[in-house]
Specification:
This protein is 37% helix and 25% strand. By secondary structure, the protein is α/β, with parallel strands linked by helices.
């Protein structure tokens, strides 16, 4: 007899509970639910109500845990179960396993480490009648497939994606046609056209849950029409007949109707949970495809919201201006979505970030006092690696997840501390693109953390704002500076904070080189010089005054750099990542790295190397 604990007693939790009552080899021994939301206890049924999952696992040590609470609670619940000293043999989780593919990957790795069988309830894989249909149409030509649904793409449309992959193979192409906001915020229902190897005419049609509930599947082959409706409980078959209808011809005529006990899928999934067959790998691929399709349409902001909404508390640590630009979008997402976050500032950020924040000591004391394991620490690239090392060690000590966002294409390993000859990484590491990720993976083969791509947030912001500026506004801005001259924007890098970080050049040496370079070819241009936030604006201006006397120029340290890029013809700099934004805006760039040393070469990146001037 397998003992079962159900976490969450909403619609699906109730269905699991009633299915288990009729199964001989399974027994519900407890329900874990928030106060006052559990079912009335029947004296004939011997189960216990818990409000504390950890306590339940410790006291009862169940064989199986079923997770059927809210989608946003899946990740934290799975973590509690898998990190428990008394973790079960099997976990059955409602879809989606988590809100974000990267979080699902963390759970998959943890389940594998604990040797726990993890099943996700995409129910159509576990219904015998569906298996029979799949076999029946295996060798038939698929003319058309149409799946109608509502109530959110992640929440319900994910069923359609898994069904398509299960029946017709891997999705090769897709195009989002429209979307409807009919479910929770940030999970609209999408209408999509898709192709697979077996079927090249598939439609997922989004409806509107605010008017009615509907989930229907229609499959048309060369010989059959199959409709699955009535909340999955009815399957109708239409067979091809000759000389029928008006005018007479080949028509698909209803020939058979069968009933489906959809609740049996729950019994089947529980039975399958005891088999050795691997259902998890294929289902994870479906969830990966759901994420891919959704985020091909919607911006990074929603992806960040999905990440942070899985946690009770968010700690965001900022010290440098480049890091602030990178994490500004994260900060805005947190502020909009929840008030349970702590902004930690040190160094430059302490003086320049105009928001309420905690010092490092205050934040560390909060973590010690709170002891909330379902928390997330967000970090960006810092000039002082020791700051990152300190906070990663704190996150590991107090069992807090951490997410690290790279904003450049260098120093992939220096940010992470080494303890007992082993490098300690964040749980999530986000790289700006495939090139950066590949460079990291080339040297690091470990897989006990999750790596993924999150496009560089400041670059994405600049691109979006620059492209949205009206041409007439850009023309007016240009005229206000110069009527005819070419405009060149120069973006300074900060000087190194120590001798060990010197790259062979600095602000003074670059300005000295610029005098000759500009005097030779560019005296007819208008220059906008943009100091780095960590530079002294007056000092930069004074250096320029002494050297640049044969061209027109100004120093601008207040305008939005996206506006400056939009109105400029060329963008120059050294190794700032903003040169990559300029490239993406199809601006001509130059990278001045005069007399750079080995560290200077390492501080550059592949995108700007073709445009480097180093002698």
């Amino acid at each position: 007899m397998k003992s079962v604990v159900i976490v969450g007693f909403g619609h699906m939790g109730n269905k699991y509970f009633h299915s288990l009552r009729d199964m001989k080899n399974f027994k519900t021994i407890a329900i874990v639910e928030k106060k006052n939301t559990f079912p009335k206890k029947n004296s004939k049924k011997k189960y216990i109500i818990y409000h504390d999952l950890k306590k339940c696992l410790e006291e009862l040590q169940p064989n199986i845990v079923i997770i059927s609470n809210n989608d946003s609670e899946h990740y934290s619940t799975l973590k509690i179960v898998l990190n428990s000293k008394y973790f079960p043999q099997t976990i059955v989780c409602e879809k989606p396993i988590t809100l974000l593919y990267e979080s699902s990957e963390l759970i998959k790795k943890l389940a594998k480490k604990r040797k726990v069988k993890l099943l996700i309830n995409y129910s159509r894989r576990f219904i015998n009648e569906y298996k029979n249909i799949k076999r029946k149409i295996e060798k038939q030509k698929i003319i058309m497939v149409n799946i109608k649904y509502a109530n959110g793409f992640f929440h319900n449309g994910s069923h359609a994606i898994d069904f398509i992959r299960y029946f017709f193979g891997e999705i090769l192409e897709y195009k989002i046609l429209k979307y409807t906001n009919d479910y929770i915020r940030h999970d609209p229902s999408l209408s999509i056209f898709l192709k697979t190897k077996k079927a090249d005419n598939i439609f997922i049609s989004s409806l509107d849950e605010r008017y009615f509930t509907l989930f229907e599947i229609e499959i048309i082959t060369e010989k059959l029409r199959i409709i699955i409706d009535k909340d999955h409980s009815r399957i109708r078959f239409f067979e091809k007949k000759n000389n029928v209808g008006n005018p007479p011809g080949k028509r698909l005529i209803e020939s058979k109707e069968i009933s489906v006990d959809h609740d049996k899928s729950i019994a089947n999934i529980l039975k399958n949970s005891q088999s050795k067959k691997d259902f998890t790998t294929e289902i994870f691929k479906s969830e990966e495809k759901v994420n891919e399709i959704f985020f091909s349409k919607f911006d990074l902001n929603i992806r960040l919201i999905f990440l942070i909404n899985q946690y009770e508390k968010i700690y965001l640590f900022i010290s440098d201006p480049g890091e602030y630009n990178l994490l500004e979008l994260v900060l805005k997402s947190i502020e909009k979505e929840r008030n349970k976050f702590v902004l930690i500032c040190s160094g430059w950020a302490k003086k320049n970030v105009k928001k309420k924040f905690k010092s490092e000591d205050e934040a560390e004391n909060m973590i010690i006092e709170d002891r909330k394991e379902n928390s997330l620490l967000i970090l960006g690239s810092k000039i002082d690696f020791s700051k990152t090392h300190k906070w990663l060690k704190i996150s590991k000590k107090y069992k807090i997840d951490s997410a690290f966002f790279f904003n450049h294409w260098k120093h992939y390993f220096e940010h992470f501390p080494v303890i007992n000859k082993k490098r300690i990484y964040s749980d999530y590491i986000f790289f700006p693109d495939k090139l950066a990720l590949a460079s990291f993976k080339k040297k690091e083969k470990r897989s006990d953390f999750v790596t993924s791509i999150m496009p560089q947030l400041e670059i994405e912001r600049i691109l979006k704002k620059s492209r949205n500026l009206k041409p007439a506004n850009i023309r007016n801005l240009r005229v206000s500076l110069t009527k005819k001259n070419k405009i060149i924007l120069f973006l300074f890098d900060p000087d190194p904070i120590s001798e060990s970080m010197e790259s062979g050049y600095n602000t003074k040496s670059i300005i000295n080189y610029l005098k000759t370079f500009i005097d030779n070819k560019h005296t007819d241009c208008f220059f906008i010089f943009r100091p780095h936030p960590r530079q002294n604006n007056k000092n930069v201006k004074e250096m320029l005054k002494k050297i640049l006397v044969n061209c027109k120029w100004q120093v601008d340290y207040t305008s939005d750099v996206s506006i400056l890029m939009a109105l400029s013809d060329e963008v120059w700099g050294s190794t700032t990542i903003l040169l990559i934004a300029a490239l993406k805006l199809k601006k001509k760039i130059l990278s001045f790295q005069i007399n750079r040393n080995k560290l200077g070469i390492e501080s550059s990146n592949p995108y700007i190397e073709p445009f480097v001037i180093d002698k």
